[in-house]
Protein: AcrR family transcriptional regulator
Organism: Sphaerisporangium rubeum
Amino acid sequence: MPRQADHDLRRRQIAQAVWRLAARGGLEDVTLRNVAAEAGVSVRLLQYYFGTRSRLLLGALEILNADAERHAKERLERLGPDPGVRAAVRMVLLELLPLDEERRNRHLVYVAYFVRFLTDPALAEAVRDTPHALEELVAGLLAQGQATGLVPPDVATGPEGAFLVAAAGGLQAGMLLGQYTAEQVVSLIDHQLGRLFG
């Protein structure tokens, strides 16, 4: 195996250990010693790849974000070459929900990081623009829908995109807390899209 591939694989192995610990017990459980044990590596090797705990948390988050983006693109590609605007908006919103084990675990990790986002500028920077980028993506898709007559011309696509992303975020928390089932949340998303797309 090439050296860079081995390096990337080892970083991913360590990052996955961070995610498992964070999802199970919060960031309090993410110590260098605990991560090393979970990953099956020495603390020294972990420090070689990430250095400090702060850099470990940031590195694991960056890998998680890259994975989430890659998985979303793969799901969008599975919709086919021309999925339609409504299907694309729906896919973006459903990607924000813990509808399967992979997405549930990812969202549990984000929840574990949440308080740290409020106090650690480097971690906050890693996620700060994500909601805005998603809002712009959804707003752009809604504008495409307007151009083709699928979305009424009086819909303000910017605020609507922001609302849809924020609503999905709220539903995500409700699902993690057991307040909503997957079926209820998907039904709510579909209801909102039905309102927009008529």
Observations:
- The CA atoms of residues 64 and 106 lie 7 Å apart.
